[in-house]
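Marked as duplicate of an earlier ticket. Keeping the data here for the record.
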Amino acid sequence: MDLTPIPTPSHEEVLRVSDAETGLVGFIAIHSTQLGPAAGGLRMRRYDSEEAALTDALRLSHGMTFKNAAAGLPLGGGKAVIIGDPGTDKTDAMLAAFGSAIAALRGRYWTAEDMGMSPADMAVIASATRFVAGLPDGEFASGDPSPVTAKGIFNAIRCTAKHRLGSADLTGRHVAVQGLGHVGWDLAAQVHAAGATLSVADISPARAQKASERFGATVLDPTQIVTAKADILAPCAIGGILNAETIPLLQVKAVAGSANNQLATPADGDALHKRGILYAPDYVANAGGIINVATEILRIHDRAGFVAEKLAEAEATLDAILSRAVARDLSPNKLSDEIVLARMQRPAA
């Protein structure tokens, strides 16, 4: 096992993790422990290069600092990535090796499930370190966080609709969902149950077709969904999809989804605002997953009560941000950043 520090001025600690025996190559990025131990999921995907994987870890860990602060959690921001195809490259030995790397940080970073990972994978990692959450069983096990994330996004869509479309009622509204993974699928189910019309896209044609059969959704090509004509776009796949190329082509009135780092740059928030598209800041809207995971890290006995309370607080925070944004004619992401930075000046109790 090799842990190589990577000096990064924007972060407290960044490590390249490698293990020749298992083929492991990845990164652990700790952005901030100001409010508590860094917490954020472990992602495994096929990156084009190590540089791309490191960039993803840095962006995601920064986002976790803001997400945890916005949710009022006594946790800092961190993230980990493994380079490889989770369907063909992942092994228990590789996961255990990564668990050993996490253990070496002695609690400065807690990991959990993210893209390409499952609660069963978390159990394997837990064989090498106790600093893991999202476990399938145990006294404080929180399991798959996806349903809670989806619930938070559903709340965010209704809240955004209230401010941009005049009502939180989704009956007859058209929502375009990009990505039908665990979160996207659960979200599509909730939006459909609320009476909305759905357009969907996913890299798996079979999954998209299943959504068509289950929810009566219109299936679009993954390259078309972002620019589809709808009331609300819900990005639930990779980040950076709101950028200088896509924003001029958007045909929606609002954006609210689960993907992390939806804005390619902060300036893209201003570009959305100039087009009259109301944006629900992703790290406020998608906090459900880390709220669920936090019950395990913080050893919360009443998980259901804690999650319900924090989801309500997250919705209230988003409602306040959007209200102020509309009243002051500002992009919501600027206001949400202001709120988070203010909270970080007074550490959580």
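See parent ticket for discussion. The chain has two domains: 2-125, 146-288+297-336.
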